[in-house]
Amino acid sequence: MRRYSAFAIAREGARYHTGWERAWRSPKPKKKYDVVIVGAGGHGLATAFYLGKNFGITNVAIIEKGWLGGGNTGRNTTIIRSNYLQDPSAAIYEKARSLYETMSQDLNYNVMFSPRGVMMLAQTHHEVRGYQRTAHANALQGVSTEFISPQRVKELVPIMDINGPRYPVLGALWQPRGGTARHDAVAWGYARACSDMGMDIIQKCEVTGVNQAGGKVTGVQTTLGEIGCDKLAIVVAGNSGDLAGKAGFRLPMESVALQALVSEPIKPTIDVVVMANTVHGYMSQSDKGELVIGGGTDGFNNYTQRGSFHHVEETVRALVETFPIISRLRMMRQWGGIVDVTGDRSPVISKTPLGNTFINAGWGTGGFKSIPGSGWAMAELVAKGEPGPLAAEFGLDRFREGRFIDESVAAGVAH
Amino acid sequence: MSTRLAQGGRLIDRSKAMEFTFNGKRMTGYAGDTLAAALLGAGQTLVGRSFKYHRPRGILASGSEEPNALVHLGEGARFEPDQRVTTTELFDGLTCTSQNHWPSLEFDVGAINNKFSRFLTAGFYYKTFMFPRVAWEKLFEPIVRQSAGLGQVPKERDADRYEHFYAHVDVLVVGGGVAGLAAARSAASTGAKVLLIEQTNHWGGRAVVDGGEIDGMPVEGWVNKAVEELENMANVTIRTRIMGAGVYDHGYATGYERVADHTPGDGRPRHRLWRIRAKQIVTATGAIERPLSFAGNDIPGVMLAGALRDYIVNWGVSAGDRVVVVTNNDDAYRTALAVKAAGLNVPMILDARAEAGGPLADAAREAGIRVEAGKGIAKVHGGKKVTGVSVCAQAGEGASLEEIKCDAVAMSGGWSPVVHLWSHCGGKLIWDVEQAHFRPDPDRAPTSHDGAAFVVTAGSATGALSLADVMADAHAAGKVAGKAAGGKTSSKAAPEVAPETMQPIEPVWVMPQGAGPDKRMKMWLDFQNDVKVSDVQLAAREGYESVEHTKRYTTLGMANDQGKLSNINGLAILSDALSQEIPATGTTTFRPPYNPISFGAIAGEARGELFQPVRQTPMHAWHAEAGAYFEPVGHWYRPYCYPKSGETHEQAVNREVLNTRENLGLLDASTLGKLVVKGPDAGKFLDMMYTNMMSNLAVGKCRYGLMCSENGFLSDDGVVARIDEDTWLCHTTSGGADRIHAWMEDWLQCEWWDWNVYVANVTEQLAQVAVVGPNARKVLEKLNDQAGGGMDLSAEALPFMQWRDGKIGNFDARAYRISFSGELSYEIAVPASQGRAFWDALLDAGGEFGVMPYGTECLHIMRAEKGFIMIGDETDGTVIPQDLGLNWAISKKKEDFMGKRAQSRSHMTDPDRWKLVGLETLDGSVIPDGAYAVGEGVNANGQKNVIGRVTSTYYSPTLKKGIAMGLVKHGPDRMGEVIGFPTVDGSNTVVKAKIVSPVFYDPEGEKQNV
Amino acid sequence: MLTLQCPYCGVMADETELHAEGEAHIKRFGPGSSDEDFETYLFERKNPKGVHFERWRHTGGCGKFFHAARSTMTLEVYGTYPAQTLEPPKELIDAIKAKHPDWEGYK
After folding, report:
1. Which of A75, A272, B205, B885 is 20 to 30 A from B92, alpha carbon to alpha carbon?
2. Mean pLDDT of A169-193
């Protein structure tokens, strides 16, 4: 792999950029691989990368029905944070966040990780107590967060109306090293690194069936023919239930649309990521200048990658209320992705009823921020056949045992 | 240079001059101008700078597809960035400034990027700025951010308001050109209810500019007649200034009405968002002209041929005195003829096609214009404006055959149907080889709730490009839509248009065909984002082969115009680079909105006080007058405390607690959920809903009950009263009433539908006051004494945990002897209409007993002092009743109840679950909210092991020390042990607390039971 | 922005007056059931690509829960029917089969 650098750009600039190599190869599938990973999104590619990097397993195919990074990896609002409450969540999201810190150098691809800080507004007393609890938990989990005052919120985000008549800002949970990254670049950077390790990324190749013998998977049927494998990893957010069905088991998941939207590009106006859960909306500003906005999921099962307008309306209403100056700015584009949501809203990194098949799914709205941590944990699970500490609590068995990882601690409301 | 012509301009009123300023320079236009026309008319060809290289930018188009001419519009509270001059109606006093330059439009330091453009290719930033690591965050990214973005940000709160409007129609026709008018007419002829919307302020669209005849009259005459006809039809509504913004599932569409953009400050809402349900949607959205890719095609003065013609015909504005026309199709000849007809010069028409024949070419030649076939532009000369072009053979590599001086270039690469609305909801496209464009595939239309197609295209949005085809197609589309929407078959005849002969287009994606890399680096595809032919070719070479990869790697089509001009050209270049057919490459996804719409319009009226509904109790006005500090609880506002002047909230709360414990406190408890559950099977049903037995509750008595989810977790609690043989009244938490009501309905409707039970939510029918404290009985008895109420409130007649109906004073009351504070307490429910009077009467009568109202925080402290749990504090969706020592409230006798099965799972019966205890700090301080207790060592992920957490923590004014409840591993077995809670306030301290009983106050319950 | 017809009040209801309530025809398992059955009841979902039987509630209208058969791929609503049923009505199954001959049917 020819390294990317300012020098390389200068060299290529002098010759009309004719010397750049392909970022990744487009090979024909081989007959058989040690590991076949279904899904070349961020999670699948990261799984492959850490299989190679941490375990030396490089006879790997990553197969993708569309184009790599074309699912939720390229459709999210690019927020990275690890200020989760429960220990297992904080561990894997913080692992991910710390890997994002060095990802550009690790991959030799600028993923533009931007630790500009993430704040989650507390707008009810109940939320204040909840975020104070998270701050205490984070301190013990090695996650650097802090509960900050409304005045500090205003200093960090001058355009915010902290005295809104309906829900004044009472404080915020602040993670100074949370932030954003360039979502596509994460997929591309991993793809380039995986390809460089000799792994095959096979795009436009859809899995149509799973071959089994003796309770184990022997390979997959695809639109490009059969591909054999010793181990199979299913990493297909949104389509997990469908693929598990092809492999003969069911999952505690449903697929729903999650929408996002951007404004027209403007000069910098908000430096941090703001999430406002009482009013349901979050916003940051991309390096291109667009305000990047998201809200909650739609309510019904949906594979269409489009959502209902009233959810967008609710989100925009919340943000106009929080940032009044944006009302004269304009929504340039809205879109949807399909996320799979589990019974406790936490992900699954797990063995399956099939001995040599593993699944990574159910990230819901937390997919992008977890990519490197998820890949790291999934690679360990696939390589060793047993979960390491990062994945240990995320097994499918937790639903049977009643051992949930519930981050939505605000289920009850005060008297 | 562009200028206003002495004559012409069908849309302007030369008798009404309008003053405006651009970058502080005073200019004049006319009523009917767009800002674009006015700027060009005033000679302003340079209007902005591009995103990346800060290249000079002029007006390229005449409609919403304009990528370049975006300005700051207005000032102060009416300032907005990125406003397209082509869609801005001129008004007197308009002010605007250009964007993305420093220090000035004419001299922009940022243009230095242009010098380095050779290095700043597609995706260069992915390959650099990585070393040293910290430099991205501290140095490079701040520079990138400052240089990105186009317009400045509004500084002031918006002076305008916005609103929503709802419309339900049979047929929505989007687009008021001749196709939309024809489709609306034919749809209306089926009897369907039709809404026709047009984004500009005038009807007729392009056809009026292009000329021709419909039904034997000039197009403009036909348009006027059609509009008049539609205006007079009872089943038709027609509206201008509304853009069809988005099409969503099942016939939902949004319309963006710019009500007062052209009359700022006139008191009307600025924008109105139309939320439309239509059985059928006809998109008569026209077509957009494509640029041609030749070197220097971005220099101000190069314009789309159709736009250049629009400016002449509609606004009497010329883009230049000498206009070179370059084309690969017939349509641009109309521009040449229009320029000529305006008395200006067309030195040459460069037709890239091998032959330039047909009626339009003949007409051009007849008009004395030199027509060169097989020729193109090798290079445009000029910097901030066009000075000339080099002519070359299209088939060659770009050797200059001839130099021509000119000050404008009109280019046409063909026309692409506007397919956005068709595509928003899943309509598919096909590549039309003959016409070289993507057009809707009528066999793969978006489908609605019934599985049938609900979008029909009309006119050039279908791909019809001649007037005759447009009218025939649009007329048929309207009929189809009207019929599908339930209309009758119509025999209305189609408008008559004589067919015309057009010569076929020849696709030209690069001009000249053999252009080398130096030329391809100067051929712009995306004019705003500075994406050139060479960038797309580089992306393909580097393996970004999917059209989505190319878009995202190069940013092609990601600017404000969302690729309206660049997408087709870009994917043609990509296809060529990949040696594949254009359909194999496909398009990126078309997403709403068609053009950007204001956030204000989307939010509508829901701002400030109207942001969300506020629920108020009958006593709310009193609380507000008393200066209560409110907190939102669900949609309710509840008093948190009632600070007296000079008091902090904390002082007020402490005063309220002490007064209630010593004298008399009043709590407005009206928000408490109240559900009546009634019917022969109500007892059986409540036994399923609650963990406790409710069927055996005696009439007249109350019982505290717990509700769990099927997953076993505690979800709500409250006191249940048995009203009569088949009626129970269930209290829920304030935030829980609607949720629990829905939950009960769910089981009654979907699981036990044969059970005879009704549930009614009567929360808002009743006002409820908790009368609490040693003097509680006295004040109520005084009311009875004053007004002769009959209810016996003595301990004997109304013992603890019972209720009675009767008169208290003048009031129709139901009194519950229940206590959430540990004090003698009556919760009195009266009809909501009597609530305020009852509250006032209690305050009046209570004066001698030391009455004071108290708020939710006092309530919280008093219940914590008593060790009562609070849903949302002691519970968080992960806690089961057994964790809270509430086993006494879980029936052992019942076979089944919500959550019972779940609570037998292995993790729920794990003896290591954290259990509720009281916590008493050694030094009397208050444990911080949310603190965790640490154990020994760290877990496998390196996180400190925790053994418990605090769930409620307060300063107890009664006990004069900090008290808390918490969940602790093996807690109840560790009474007296001291555990540590590290703080996070930076002091690095650990609060030490002893594990004690959670009941801190009056453990024997003597005070409440008097 | 879906529309579904409430089978009780007959209103063609906009999504904004409805609330989605998850998969339909889930059999409740209570005390005495196996861990497996109980897990299936609470968590395992069909989540199909295609024909889906689900529950809705007409929250902004008559308040009734009802069932719908809807495609998760096209959002077509094949029909709605009362909640007081243990499985989809045969006419509805037949109608869906007629539209999608290779649909595997309700199971």
Report:
1. B205
2. 98
Residue partners of C97: CB distance under 8 A and separation at least 6: C103, C105
Token output for B89: 């109606």
The gap from C-alpha B312 to its chain's centroid, in whole angstroms, comes to 39
CB C70 within 8 A of CB C52: yes
Q: Rg of chain B over CA atoms, in angstroms?
A: 38
The Cα B31–Cα B1006 span in angstroms is: 84
Residue A412 to residue B357: CA distance in whole angstroms? 77
Residues A412 and B718: beta-carbon distance below 8 Å: no
CA distance C9 to C11: 6
**A contact test, residue of C29, C47, C74 with most A CBs within 10 A:** C47
Distance CA B392, CA B401 (A): 5
Domain B911-996 has CATH 2.40.30.110: yes
Q: Which residue has the tokens 């792994």?
A: A199
Domain covering B291-413 assigned CATH 3.20.20.140 in the classification: no
User: Per the domain annotation, does C10 fall within a domain?
Assistant: yes
User: What's the Cα-to-Cα distance from B521 to each of B120, B122, B250, B314, B429, rounded to whole Å?
Assistant: 11, 11, 45, 35, 31
Pairwise CB contact (< 8 Å): A23 & B543: yes
Q: How does DSSP assign B193-214, residue by residue?
A: -EEEE-SSSSSBTTHHHH--EE
Tens of pLDDT, residues B752-791: 999 999 999 999 999 999 999 999 999 999 999 998 888 9
**How many structural domains compose chain C?**
1
CATH class belonging to B517-580: mainly alpha
pLDDT tens for A239-285 read 888 899 899 888 999 999 999 999 999 999 999 999 999 999 999 99
Nearest 5°: phi and psi at B345? -105, 135
CA distance B362 to B844: 99
**Residue A302 is nearest to which of C38, C45, C72, comparing CB atoms?**
C72
pLDDT at A412: 30
With beta carbons less than 8 A apart as the criterion, state whether B544 and B577 touch: no
CA distance B191 to B208: 28
What type of residue is A20? W
Cβ-in-10-Å burial (0-12, 13-18, 19+) of B381 comes to middle
Contact B248 C1 (CB under 8 A): yes
Q: What's the pLDDT at A409?
A: 59
- The answer, for B579 touching chain C at a CB cutoff of 8 Å, is no
| Three-state secondary structure call for residue A170 | coil
- Could you give the 3-state DSSP secondary structure of residue B993? strand
Structure token digits, residue A156: 């960090």
Q: Which residues of chain C lie closer than 8 angstroms to A303, CB-CB?
A: 49, 72-73
CA distance C50 to chain A (A): 9
Structure tokens at B695: 């069927």
Least confident of A298-307, B295-304, B714-723, C6-15: A298-307
CA distance A126 to B365: 79
A134 plus A116 within the same structural domain: yes
- Structural fold of domain B162-287+417-484: FAD/NAD(P)-binding domain (3.50.50)
- Rg value, chain C, Cα: 15
Helix (H, G, I), strand (E, B) or coil at B323: strand
The two structure tokens encoding residue B95: 């002010």
Burial A115-130 (b: 16+ CB within 10 A, else e): bbbbbbbbbbbbbbbb
Q: Does the beta carbon of A3 lie under 8 angstroms from any beta carbon of chain B?
A: no
Beta bridge partners, C12, equal C5
Regions in chain B scoring below 70 on pLDDT: none
CATH architecture of B1-158: Roll (3.10)
Whether residue C104 is contained in a domain is answered as: no
Same domain, A259 and A335: yes
A158 shares its domain with A188: no
**In this complex, do C30 and B742 lie within 8 Å of one another by their Cβ atoms?**
no
